[in-house]
Amino acid sequence: MRGLLFCWLVALTDIALNPKKAYEYRYEGEVKFGLGKPNLAESGLRIKCKATITGVSEQMFLLQVSELSFADLNGFPDKNAGYNPTPKVTKRIAAELAKPFMFEHANGHIGDIRASAEVSTAVVNIIRGILSFFQVTLKTTEHIYELEETGIHGKCHSNYAIDENEETGDWIITQVVDVTKCKERAAMYRGMSSSVVDKLSKERGESIVSTMKYNYTVKPTAEGGLITKAHGLEQQHFTPFNVKGGSLKMQAMKNLVLLSVNDTARARTYGPVESKGNIVYKFEDVDINIPVMMQNLDNPVPKAIELIKRLAVANSQSIDSATTEDVFKVYQLMRVIPYEGLENMWKQLAENPKHRRWFLDSIVEVGDERVLNFLENRFKIKDLTSIEAWQSLLMALQHLAVTPERVEMAKVFLKMPFSKSNTYLWHTVALSYGSLVNKYCAYYTPCPVSAVQPLLEIATEALRSNNKEEMVVALKALGNAGHPASMKTIIRYLPGVAATPVDLPVWVQSAAVKAMRLITTRDPHKVQDVTMALFLQKDVPSEVRMLAFRILFNTKPSMALVSTVTAHLLEERDLQVASFAYSYLQGFASSTTPDNHHLSIASSLAVRILAPRLGRLSYYYSKAKLVDLFDDNWLTGISSEYFMLKNASNIIPSEIMFKGKLHFIGRIMDLFALGISAEGIKDLFGTAIPGFKGDFSINDLKAIFSVLQKWETLENDKPVLSVFSSIFGQEWFFADMSKETLRNIITAFSAATWKSSPLRALMESLHKGISWDYTRSFLTYEARYFQATTLGLPVEISKYYNSITAINFNAKVAVNPPPTESFGQLLNSEIILETDGFAGVTKDYWVFYGVNTKLFQSGSELKIKTPIAVPWKLSTKINVPEKKFELDFPRSKEEIKLFSMRSDVYAVSRNIEEPDSPKITPIMSPSTDPSDDVLKPNTWHPTSRMCYECNIYGVGLCMEYELRRQYYHEEYPLYYFLGYSHMAIKIAQVEKIHFELDLGPIRQPMSARLLLETLSRLSKKKQTLSSHTVQNSTTEAIFNFKAFAMSGNQQPEGYDAAMFYTPETGIHNGQIIVSQVGANTNWKMCVDTSLGAEAKAHVRWGAECQTYDMSMKASAAYINFTRPELKATVQWNSISEYMVEIGKRIERYIPGVAFLYGFSLENERNPKQEVSAAVVAAWTDSVDVKIKLPEVSFFIYTYLFVSVLTGTVVESLDPIPICSQFTEGALQRMLTF
């Protein structure tokens, strides 16, 4: 048999078409999306047609399509949901398919495909799906073989197996294509340049798995093999998490059956045709085809103008959540409008502030040359404000679909005079261009140096002219670009590694080090060389060395490199650098994210080596903290990093930064970063603050203020304070407060400049009454992935996140007497403010998985809508001289929905012929009863509504939620998101509410005196106090606070609270009295406190403060002047039943926790109504702890501090007494908090 098979294979060299014959085939293709469960909705498409192939020449053939039928599916398989014909779509597609298609075919492979110019790429792709059956490679010497060949998915790896059907003599060919690892893959990404591929996460799971298999029945003929039957099956599993935990499924099938073969004369061509490319799938208008909607795009300008005007009205005073999705219609219309149309829209909408704002927010989503041309024209004409310009350019370049031509066009903004007309606009131009280069390099490899050349020239010129501000701008832009070719320029700024050293301040050198942050993934070895050289140089500033260490570890150094760093840290004398490096190593040692897997092992060993020397350095030294979490089932994780950089010469940190990352579907995304640099301020404070004792007293505040008053001594060219922020790994904003800016702020409050002060103008405007209405639409996230399917239809995975923010308010201020000479006169005035307004945001989030073309859509769609709304109306009265503050909220009977969230997953079907009639079916059936022959799923339908009402104030707060889920256990964690979800928080106020705060120094009222005398007689601990003592002490009310509800002419109800302070020698006494106000109530709470050698508090509450009482005391001391001791005791005589129950629960919980932490248990009879705890420092790294409950005691001696991150005992070669940097007064004040 094998010999016979070999003979036939020698004869059967290729799949062949005879140019003298006509082949008639029946073709059918369908694709479905869902979970593959009969009780869950799915959607799909089906195409049927007859395909006739006729020879034109020896290698050129004509394909004619007839009898086309197009149908869609949307519903539940167990409810007999089937395909429904869509005649209008059939007619539209048939009109294009009726045109002739020419293709080359030789040696079993499809060559050039040709069609009429008016035939769309989408229809040509359907033809590719039919012709891909004829793309088969046969080998004459093997029956099992593998090779790399070009197909509809790209240049992919294929495995073939050939067998013979002994009954018919036909050959059965099986072809399996690996569509996931193609060299020239027919796939495309959009909006994912800012995320880094995490290759190591692939070892823990996949979020997308695809398979492709073809089966052919081939009949041997004299010309070669003739395909009589063929079947293709492509399956794809997708989940935002790990496919092992359930997935959405795509199943694409197609069949080809030979109907007849006839002799015929060679076909003639039908009109002119043009090349449409080879068999590989071609993408068309992906930016225009937004998957979550479909609309008619004819005559787009008036449609877009009408929508913008409607959205501006609907979302003016508040947000109409029902209209927020219409903003995507605007985005799509803008993407098809030609440049001239956009200019025309600008002329019509620019005069109205609301329409103008909506237009500018929408045009940035055009994403191609047109938006660049539009903004270039605006910069030339200068008809945008600086704020409008930097907002528009920032978003336009961020959302630009990058090409070499567009990058070249964007360079013009770096040279336009208008770009430098405002400091922050120039920052935005430079930073945004850097971000554009970074995106360019993400999609084009190698990335040409010409893209980053303008930024290199700016950096070089700034260095030549010694313009430090421009140096920082250029370095930050280069940091955004992340181009490897910029390393040579960056090195020129770095101490110790530059060929020609330049004397630069630390804040410029720091910017140069940070500029390497994105090059770590593109040229890690070069970055390692530079950062390692910086780190090892002892004479380089500490801040620069620490930043170099941070960038070094972003390159994921090898075990050998980490070992080298560890060896140097053992000899490091700069404890700031050592502390920073050690704490960062601790974070990596405990990391669980896949990208840090190897680095975590190396860092763990380093921490063990360094712990004896560096493990006990306090937070007075620099720190770098990394905390993360990753779950393999979800293939999702989060990480956060915190950096505090200090040097030995300054008490104030040089820089503090916080950043967060998201690990999701095999990618790492830098979500945000926020940093503050205090270059000028740290120099002002120096190594210590004169008069600062560290006990956080008023004297310490005065000491700090006296230092700040010396701001005139600061350097003129050094920033006093700098802030910066980045989103998705790209720095988008930074601002420096210079000495001149600080001077202008102080001058604005001075009497000398009062008449020209902007504060005076603001006060006058507020007196007349001001209104402000701001609405902003913002497409935060648009990430899309496209892949060809065997049918010639594109499968798409898309995520969209859009928000509409609205803030509007009215405010009017009356000041009596009004200030006439300076802002400080307000300290002698009464201020009345009346205001009302609204602040809110509605967020729309979609995930789409399905087929998306300009003609039709079919797939699964997750949709989440989250409105947040905070309306207000209030009036305030501030009497500054008398230190009185009043706040009134008028009554309102309308229920306010503060927050709500609604989400569901749908099976969706849309088509361009019926754009307003989409088929959208919730994936879960309203009926929870599956068919008898269906495996019954688990059902989960929790629902709840909880309300809290405060009858006194007439305020009610309600929280409600409802979830509906049907799932199978193998679908964890996917089933968490598959179904309906609704949550809401609502509030209602039916009474007027009045708050009053009095901070004036008033004598204690007689009623309060009598009450305190009564309390003194009741308290054994207060027996020494007499009424004479109380009456003659200087007891004063620190504050009086009232919160009343007022209903018409009825008596106010609510609470009245007052705090009294009685200073005595060495003791600070205070009393707080809270009284309920209203008819038939005598509830009060009385709290006596004293702070002396120990802190004490005695609490009584109930009827006239006599129903319940409890006392607490705490003390801090030193044993033998070296060992700090903390003691705390709680005693009670009578407490409420609720508190008793809470206490019993805590008592049951404590033994287990104590055992977990190694405490010993001792059964002993302690006071029944007392709990106490004592902590004594035994040594630098251990304490003695004893806790006493009424019936049991827990104790542990020499409790070692253990590093939570590494699990190792932390020791120190150079012990420092614990708490040596705190005074006893500081400890006592900490106890009061």
UniProtKB/TrEMBL annotation:
Residues 1-22 form the signal peptide. Residues 17-656 form the Vitellogenin domain. One of its GO terms (biological process) is cellular response to estrogen stimulus. InterPro entries: Lipid_transp_b-sht_shell, Lipovitellin_superhlx_dom, Vitellinogen_b-sht_N, Vitellinogen_b-sht_shell, Vitellinogen_b-sht_shell_sf, Vitellinogen_open_b-sht, Vitellinogen_open_b-sht_sub1, Vitellogenin/Apolipophorin. PROSITE patterns: VITELLOGENIN. This is Vitellogenin 3, phosvitinless. GO terms for molecular function: lipid transporter activity; nutrient reservoir activity. The lineage of its organism: Eukaryota, Metazoa, Chordata, Craniata, Vertebrata. Pfam families: Vit_b-sht_shell, Vit_open_b-sht, Vitellogenin_N. Keywords: Disulfide bond, Glycoprotein, Phosphoprotein, Signal, Storage protein. Disulfide bonds join C156-C182.
